[in-house]
Amino acid sequence: MPKKTLTERCQPFTRYIEGIKAQGFYPYFRPISRSWGTEVEVAGKRLIMIGSNDYLGLSHDPRVLEAASQALRRWGSGPGGSRFLSGNLSLHEELEERLAAFVGKKRAVLHVTGFSTNLGAIACLLTAQDTILCDRENHASILEGCQASKARLIPFAHNDPKAAAEKLHQAREKYPNGIMLLITEGVFSMSGDLSLLPGLVALKRTFPDLLVYLDDAHGIGVMGYQGRGTATHFGLTDQVDFIMGTFSKALASIGGFIASDDIDVLEYLRHHSKPLIFSAGLPASCTATVMTCLDIIEHEPERVNRLWEITRKVHAGYQEIGLRTGEPVSPVLPIHIGSEIKAGLFAADLFKNGVFALPAVFPAVPRNKAVIRTAYMSTHQESQIDYVLEVMSKLATKHGVLASDLEERGYFANASGFSSPGPGVSDQAISQIGK
Amino acid sequence: MPKKTLTERCQPFTRYIEGIKAQGFYPYFRPISRSWGTEVEVAGKRLIMIGSNDYLGLSHDPRVLEAASQALRRWGSGPGGSRFLSGNLSLHEELEERLAAFVGKKRAVLHVTGFSTNLGAIACLLTAQDTILCDRENHASILEGCQASKARLIPFAHNDPKAAAEKLHQAREKYPNGIMLLITEGVFSMSGDLSLLPGLVALKRTFPDLLVYLDDAHGIGVMGYQGRGTATHFGLTDQVDFIMGTFSKALASIGGFIASDDIDVLEYLRHHSKPLIFSAGLPASCTATVMTCLDIIEHEPERVNRLWEITRKVHAGYQEIGLRTGEPVSPVLPIHIGSEIKAGLFAADLFKNGVFALPAVFPAVPRNKAVIRTAYMSTHQESQIDYVLEVMSKLATKHGVLASDLEERGYFANASGFSSPGPGVSDQAISQIGK
Prior knowledge:
The structure is a homodimer.
Chain A: H1 6-22, E1 32-35, E2 39-42, E3 45-49, H2 62-75, H3 90-103, E4 107-111, H4 114-125, E5 131-135, H5 140-149, E6 152-156, H6 161-174, E7 180-185, H7 197-201, H8 203-206, E8 211-215, H9 230-234, E9 242-246, E10 256-260, H10 263-272, H11 274-277, H12 284-299, H13 302-321, E11 332-338, H14 340-352, E12 355-356, E13 358-360, E14 370-375, H15 382-399, H16 403-408, H17 427-433
Parallel strand pairs in A: 3-12, 5-6, 5-7, 7-8, 8-9
Antiparallel strand pairs in A: 1-2, 2-3, 4-10, 9-10, 11-14, 13-14
Helix pairs in contact in A: 2-12, 3-12, 4-5, 4-10, 13-15, 14-15
């Protein structure tokens, strides 16, 4: 008999969650019974949504909904198989071409989720002989891919090209023969930080064989000319070997892709990425959604501009209230709280006052560095934003989460934004890998 | 500099694929430009589809399409976030309740794909102290979950409860303290074999702490009363601890779920399954599709009955032609070919003659045990089936792939159906894990 049954192993956690629920500030898995994009209904209550990744508000665009409905009729509701076998649509291939052109690469390979894309691509391309340099705040799906690949995983301090350079020098000396892959996000999902990509790709001058992999899940549709992403924003598309993106943010669907100029590598990947070969293809309705979103983004640059306007307005509003937030370099504007309990109580009170925003706590951010993650959409109305800022102002004072309150509690003593550990590559995770 | 660049590593495979394409029998990633369910259009050519997992043909049911379109309008095209955060729909929770009741368990947890379900569930519940007994033909996503969990992976001969018992005895002696989980599929996707589930759950008499995990991707909607799955078929629902299923087969969508009577374990899983927490939620249109499919399956048992009628008819037809196939215990009827080249040429000729069916070769099946995987739908017309059988008869003789031809070539010398290695747990994969 095992020392502990599976139930006994899980119970302490379940009791902990029950405790939080009993105290009334469990904020997760809120069931949305209806959505109008910038507003949602939960348990009969209408709320202003400031926690969605639907940055351009395209999820409710009538053109998108019509295209999705038409695709349902043309191909049916489900793909009926893996793309490798009976579930490959001409629409998938058209979207691959379209995405490659959109991000400025020769070819792209579609997957059914963003998680699958990172997992499948990294795991099938890298081996135990290789080394991966990974920003400490990279997404969990990147870590999952790294672990499955068996490559050496070397984390570097978040968004710190100098730290990456040091690690790279050490690694190249120690492991002269394997492939070196550096992975960063374009826009980091929790902090909203914009990658210091120029400093990272500059490492190629010293290490010409270094490959750079950019997860631009939160940058596609938002950053750069026509929302073509973070590499375009910096004019560094040629220097980035792999651009990965998802459809579940600005592209109003689910799914993911990886793009590159290296046709051989992508052809290999298409036949070896396990979640691609062994998952059903992306439904036609989702694929058509993404195609239509790209049409709209390319033809209506005012949507991206409007998102930036709103982001700057909210940032200024937060500052005026006296909240501590990040720079407005992306639509993700976290409000720093520190205490995890305070973040939970603050979010619960936001909810009571008609605002849907969620706390991010460890392990999504470091311990005692809890934030309320807010992200706005280009379809938000001025009146909605004014209302949210009013509520924020009232509640921030009530809960004592203004920057001045944080200072009093010593929040800034050794805080430099979001330092390690990040949402995926925590020290614990790394020690589990045993490298 | 690495000994070989990533491009150099991938090129030999890419050249190999180019060679197959040049010879005209590369069968994969065929782009479907339109689908009517039982027929599809590829490159302007209309074909009868006998390779889809849409077993009940619900992917084109007008009620399903209408429900999916309505859900698009109510919730939008994309979820905008992870279920954990801003992408949880009341419809997800309704579907979880519905699925739990459908398979006879207390609760179910939804994931965005079937692959994610196996990966997330197995990886978060098991640890390096635990042992997993795994049928050699289990799906790649199960293997991926086992590897990510770090548990000891012990494969047993395909669908062989006696072999499983031996391995279990050895393992329990050697590792007395960890959890033991036995994983099997209900209906095996390539061979169409039905799990010998009674023999497997009988091991619980000797090992009361053994947990049984049933991946019923190909059984849900097809096996048992009202298509409630393989556990229902055998009347063994109480003996199976976890029932996992996907929506990309009979339920005409994408996604997956895991059901159990253990609320504590599922609550833990819901907060720790990485592809659940770190992927966007299932789009409303996909979720509504599954709900409507369950309505139809429960109210129209004639669909499942019709599927079995067709399966028996095709099986008899294959036998009459002289093809070697499996028993008609599931809608998957592989045609045994042996030679991988012959399978490719045969499939290419089927295509030319208006039939869409694909070869399964190593590693999906053992080396030189290639098959044409055929699977029928309850919406196939008699005329379509008659046509397919006619084509099969003509081409089987032409290509020399009748059972008598196979016998001449010594195909049956040491063939016992699909023995090791299976689609996921190959010896190579196991040696890679190093256990």
